[in-house]
Design goal:
8 strands, two-stranded antiparallel ribbon, 44% helix, six-stranded antiparallel sheet, DNA-binding, alpha+beta
Length: 304
DNA sequence: TTCCAGGCAGTAG
DNA sequence: CTACTGCATGGA
């Protein structure tokens, strides 16, 4: 599989248009973003998404709306470089990928072919900011999603900057330099466990000191090397590493082993009355070599 | 009440 | 190496 070169066309001083691939549904993607949890880093508004960005130090608020065969990215406020904003949106919606091979595999799968119509155009919605993705994973470990989103909101609203537009605050995820200096006790008061507080501040320190970055990680030759590098980090196990590779680095071949939701979906597909073993998960994923990440997120989709 | 959520590190054997 | 345990909280 190969990532297509992004085509972005600047249509005015504050607007840029992106081509979308053939198998793409803004509705399905929006449905994922708005699936009933308390997301605090974007706003859904009348079929559009508003999102504040900070890219290489430049901040601004963008609005993403669907247009014919594309997306329009409009800067509502701030001073973003539109090319970088377009790149972010492309990563966010995984616009560079052609899903046709994945859909062919699904169509040939007796049990899963219905997905190509039911979830048609659902993309792997990314978390392009690696630091944010890592923190989000740590927060989400071993607790229910409702509580996880509550913790994230507290973190974001306490330590994150925000842009104000039409009287509404749009929060950015906190910077590593800020979280690096937060005390364990402060996070404990926000109901983080001591362990999670240690993990997050530890990751923030590595980031702030330049010992960890998306650019450095991208230099690894394949997913396996990146996985090894990530799991060296305290608080990052196989689940987090695979989740981050999939969501932040757009790696196509990741399986979130250990994920309760994934295990439940596979268990149901195999008609088991227990959790599947790693071997059973691997064998279920085997026909989808190179598309494991997409199968993973389509299986998550079945849980709603 | 007990169990378990989009896990992980630490410890014991 | 594998097995077991604590962690924070809240909904089932």
């Amino acid at each position: 599989m190969q990532l297509v070169i992004l085509r972005a066309m600047k249509t005015s001083h504050n607007t840029v248009q992106l081509d979308t691939p053939r198998i793409f549904s803004f509705e399905e993607c929006l449905d994922f973003l708005d699936r009933g949890y308390d997301g605090c880093l974007y706003t859904i508004e009348e079929g559009a998404v508003l999102k504040p960005l900070c890219l290489d130090g430049e901040r601004g608020l963008i609005k993403v709306v669907p247009i014919m065969d594309g997306l329009k990215v409009e800067q509502l406020s701030g001073e973003l470089n539109l090319t970088k904003a377009a790149r972010y949106v492309s990563d966010w919606f995984d616009l560079g990928r052609d899903l046709k091979p994945f859909y062919q595999l699904l169509n040939h799968h007796e049990q899963l072919s219905w997905m190509t119509t039911r979830y048609h155009g659902l993309r792997l919605m990314g978390i392009p900011d690696l630091f944010e993705a890592l923190c989000w994973c740590v927060i989400g470990q071993q607790i229910n999603l409702t509580f996880a989103y509550r913790l994230k909101r507290r973190l974001v609203e306490t330590y994150g900057r925000f842009l104000t537009h039409n009287g509404q605050k749009h929060y950015l995820f906190p910077k590593p330099e800020i979280l690096a200096d937060v005390s364990i006790e402060e996070l404990r008061e926000m109901q983080f466990s001591r362990r999670k507080a240690e993990y997050i501040t530890g990751i923030a320190r590595q980031y702030a000191e330049g010992r960890l970055s998306k650019a450095a990680l991208s230099k690894c030759s394949d997913s396996k090397q990146m996985l090894n590098r990530l799991t060296e980090i305290r608080g990052v196990g196989p689940w987090t590493a695979n989740y981050v590779l999939m969501k932040a680095l757009q790696q196509p071949d990741c399986i979130t082993y250990g994920d309760t939701g994934l295990q439940s979906a596979v268990s149901s597909m195999l008609d088991l009355d227990r959790k599947p073993t790693k071997e059973e998960v691997d064998s279920f994923f085997a026909p989808f070599a190179g598309w494991e990440s997409y199968l993973n997120i389509y299986l998550w989709r079945t849980l709603r």
